[in-house]
């Protein structure tokens, strides 16, 4: 399974979603191996010249290895990702800035494409532009349709702020292709604290991670439901 985390806009949470999704699959999903079940084998591919995902793990306690592997592949990553998917149960790809041809190359091999966005007008417009670009390459996908979903991330403000819902509606009203997840992820300090420590969210103290973890898992479950994997 190839899961691409890609968006044109910077700072929307691509690396955070990629790193934590890799951790979720590696620590919480089991796959059948003959009669037994074993933890899923996961590779996180960092295609970003900034190497945020690769550097994330370097911040953690050296005695505590990550539950997944990380590799960097910046130039022309698609063929290698397809190859890796033969050996790993999940290949999660953190997509850095790319031209539309580069995005299209990745879109055609994705089993799931999660595009994080923030709620700002610039973020929403960038999401629409990416969806418009990807809308032209559906026919190149193995299933004839790119499994694209937008995830509204880092929603600011109080619990009763409508900014998340407003962003969902704005996207839904204008998107030429793809789905918008109903579940949003709020701006919560624990995400930044986890990054500082090189940890994934499931390693943070239960009292501080509970809400963030719940929002993340709900969004991920919705994405998999939107595009079930056979
Ligand atoms: N829901 C959230 N709550 C709090 N902080 C968040 C949230 N989502 C992202 N952040 C923070 O925002 C910053 C940018 O996130 P991240 O690096 O994942 O974005 P990105 O899209 O990969 O950026 P880039 O384009 O630079 O690669 C990080 O410090 C991250 O911890
Ligand atoms: Mg990044």
From TrEMBL:
Q: The CobQ/CobB/MinD/ParA nucleotide binding domain covers which part of the protein?
A: 3-186
Q: What is this protein called?
A: Chromosome partitioning protein
Q: Give the source lineage, highest ranks first.
A: Bacteria, Pseudomonadati, Pseudomonadota, Betaproteobacteria, Burkholderiales
Which PANTHER family does the record match to this protein?
COBQ_COBB_MIND_PARA NUCLEOTIDE BINDING DOMAIN-CONTAINING PROTEIN, P-LOOP CONTAINING NUCLEOSIDE TRIPHOSPHATE HYDROLASE
Annotated Pfam families: CbiA (PF01656)
Transmembrane ranges? none
Q: Which InterPro entries match?
A: CobQ/CobB/MinD/ParA_Nub-bd_dom, DNA_Partitioning_ATPase, P-loop_NTPase
Give the matching SUPFAM superfamilies.
P-loop containing nucleoside triphosphate hydrolases (SSF52540)
The record's CDD domains line, in alphabetical order, gives: ParAB_family
Highest rank taxon of the organism: Bacteria
Organism of provenance: Hydrogenophaga laconesensis
